[in-house]
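User: I'm writing a tutorial on reading structure tokens. Could you give me a worked example: one chain, its sequence, then its tokens, then a sentence or two explaining what the tokens reveal?
Assistant: Sure. Here is the example chain.
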Amino acid sequence: METTVETPVLTVTDAALSKIIELRAAEQDADELALRVEVTGSQGGDYTYDLGFEPMSEADPDDARYHQGDLPVWIPAGSVEALSGATLDLPGTPGQGGLVLRNPNKPDPLAGVKLDLTGDVADKVRQLLDQQINPALAAHGGFASLVGVEGDKVFVTMGGGCQGCAVSAMTLREGIERSIKENIPEVTEVVDATDHDLGENPYYS
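And here are its predicted structure tokens:
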């Protein structure tokens, strides 16, 4: 039984739709083919994608299927959340070929496998910062440091490109805090102890 969705996961603009349908028409058994869009990983803070024409009959029951005009679109179940609200369009630069996928969603830079942490809470936090969190923050010129531990509460500061950044508090709350709590269950609260008022961009001062 096919899983259909009323609201498109990925929106295809009219300009891109015409081009894609034109390309599909050149394929063998074109009427049986859907545009399949899948998230294959991440690189440089953005998702990577695989687009192609595949027979809709090969879709799994949990995959999202819908039509954009005359074009069947197929989004594998594992890519639905990452592609929700994205738009497939033609490039804005005249003469530039290919398609452009504009996606408001970004991969979680702190997502990863569960680490084997040892020692007390402070030791575990330092290991987590060194092995997972700071390598991810380094791509943005930043780092996080442990200030101290009080019972089940951990105090962390952010420096470099993260200090003074308008989104650093959100990064801490949604990324670092989740990572610490998932890997160190005895921690129930993570406090951002950073002074974010040290200039507009302390990283370059």
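What the tokens reveal: The domain at 10-102 is CATH 2.60.300.12 (Hypothetical Protein Aq_1857; Chain: A;). The chain has a mean pLDDT of 81.
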